[in-house]
Amino acid sequence: MLWTTGFEHDFGFVEVPGFARGSEPVQRRGVTAAPGLFVLGLPWMHTLKSSVLCGVGDDAAYLAERIVERPAGRD
Description:
By secondary structure, this protein is mainly alpha-helical. It has one helix spanning 56-69; strands at 27-28, 31-32.
């Protein structure tokens, strides 16, 4: 699933583990506590350039590797 939110983000409607209502998701390099839920493009997610077009690719590559590594049977 691809989910984009534009110039401002609002996670208030997301009700899964790792998301505190009205705040940034709890994540490490885009990986959340919720199985199969990843975030990308947040300010300072990993580096200063994580939230800009010229830098999000590095974070996306890292997340792609984490997604492929997931054990079989996990969402």
